[in-house]
Amino acid sequence: MMKRTVTIAIVLAFWGSSLLMMTSCAKKQTVAEQPAKPPAPVVTEVKEPAPSAESTAKEDQAALERRKQEEAARKLQMEIEAFESSKIYFDFDKSELKPEARAILDKKAAWLREHPEFNLRIEGHCDERGTNEYNLALGERRANAAFNYLNALGVSSSRMSTVSYGEERPVDPRHNEEAWAKNRRDEFRLIKK
Fold first, then answer.
1. d(C-alpha 1, C-alpha 24), whole Å
2. Other C-beta atoms lying within 10 Å of the C-beta of residue 187
3. What are the distances in angstroms from CA 70 to CA 58, 63, 73, 76?
4. Inter-helix orientation angle 99-114/53-85, to 10°
5. What pLDDT, on the 0 to 100 scale, is given for residue 3?
6. pLDDT at 96 over 90
7. What is the pTM of this model?
8. How far apart are CA 110 and CA 102, in angstroms?
9. b vs e for 58-94, b when ≥16 Cβ sit within 10 Å of the residue's Cβ?
10. Could you give the CA distance from residue 192 to residue 87 in angstroms, rounded to a whole number?
11. Spatial distance between the Cα atoms of 26 and 79, rounded to a whole number of angstroms
12. In three state form, how does the secondary structure of 45-114 look?
């Protein structure tokens, strides 16, 4: 019986240790089988690449070019305004160019030769004295006088046209010699081709 008790004790001991091992292994397996926490996301900062010296130079060059073009456009606009605001004047019932009118036309001819992209319309005007028909004809003679002078200075006739407004567009509506002197004039309008 003793042998039997020892055998039972050994079997029980073996069985108990096996059970213990299984439980401890099972725990390890349970731990191993639990889902792992996802790793924390890796945040990487995306930085814009620093502009290369070449691209910066190109941008600077483009900005400089734009400024030059804008400045040239402003300068041209000022020249156009000066050109058009400069009128020539005539004596009463005359269409001959005075010396001061010739000096103004000399400058206009030089500008027109430098700017072939513009055409010119010459507008002849008169004061209110005389009939409408007479003043229209006189305004036309005044515009033609400027046309012919500019043409003789090298401005192509294909770039110029004339129109007479007679007494229709006075700059000074008063009825005296001072007003009439202002109204006997040629005006000049530039037209971009």
1. 34
2. 20
3. 18, 11, 5, 10
4. 150
5. 65
6. yes
7. 0.69
8. 12
9. eeeeeeeeeeeeeeeeeeeeeebeebeeeebbbeeee
10. 19
11. 98
12. CCCCCCCCHHHHHHHHHHHHHHHHHHHHHHHHHHHHHHHHHCCEECCCCCCCCCHHHHHHHHHHHHHHHH
Find tokens 């792992």 and name the residue: 36
φ/ψ (deg, to 5) at 112: -65, -35
Which of 50-54, 115-119, 161-165, 183-187 is least confident?
50-54
Say if CB 126 and CB 139 are below 8 A apart.
yes
The encoded tokens of residue 114 equal 């430098």
- pLDDT number for residue 171: 96
Gap between the terminal Cα atoms of the chain = 132
Strand partners, 121: 161, 189
Helix then strand then coil, in percent of the chain rounded to 5, is: 60, 15, 30
The two tokens of residue 5 are: 């008790």
Q: List Cβ neighbours of 171 (8 Å cut-off, separation of 6 or more).
A: 125, 182, 183, 185
